[in-house]
Each structure stands twice: as C-alpha cells, then as structure tokens.
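Morning, I've got a small favour to ask if you have a moment. The fold is given in discrete form, as structure tokens running alongside the sequence. I'd be grateful if you could look everything over and explain what you see. No rush at all, and the record is pasted right below.
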Amino acid sequence: MQRQIVTTKAPAAIGPYSQAVEIGDLLFVSGQIPFNPATGKLEHADIKGQARQSLENVKAIVEAAGLTLANVVKVNVSLTDMNAFADVNAIYAEYFTGEIKPARAVVEVAALPKQVLIEIEAIAHR
C-alpha cells in the first residue's frame, strides 16, 4: 500500500507529484530544489548554500516519514555545473556521516526548475 508523505518543512510540490511516496519498506523522495519552505524563495545564489538547503529539504521529508538520513540508501544529485562537484561533496559529507554512505549518482544537466544550480532526490529504507 502506498502512502504519500507531505510536510510543510520542505517546499510544496510545484507540479503533479508528491514530496515523497512510501511503499512497503521504501521511501522515494522527489527531487528537492533549494527553496526555503518558510519563505518559498531561493535564498542562496551560491552552490554551497543551495546544496545545504536542498539537503535540508530532503532531510525534512525523510523525517516526516519517521526516518533519518541514516536510512537513505541512494541519492541522485543533478548539477548545472560539474565544476561545483567538490563544493557539493563537502556539504553532502556533513549530512551523510554514517559508516555506510548511500550509493550516489551525480550528473550534470543543462537546466533545472526555477534556474537553480542543484536538485537532490533520495531513496530510503525502513
């Protein structure tokens, strides 16, 4: 049985999708862009600030499902500039600190919604 996860601690979906969907022991978190859920705005122009906000949004959704970032098993990161990889990696390492890190893919894309620099999606296991 599917369960939709919704929290006001992450930006509302800006299209016909859910913030996350839980099915069985798996949680699928939609791509999170770096909008502050309190203001609904992009507050950081730099990649480090955008990476941190995107990860905060992922974290809020995971926690709304009753899990933690330690439950995350897979992360996909989309960047508009692969030259930002090292900066994103540094911020990412602050959030995933366990002995076993999630599997991850990082890809460069031509553009992202709302002209942001990063989008992060995740899969977690209960």
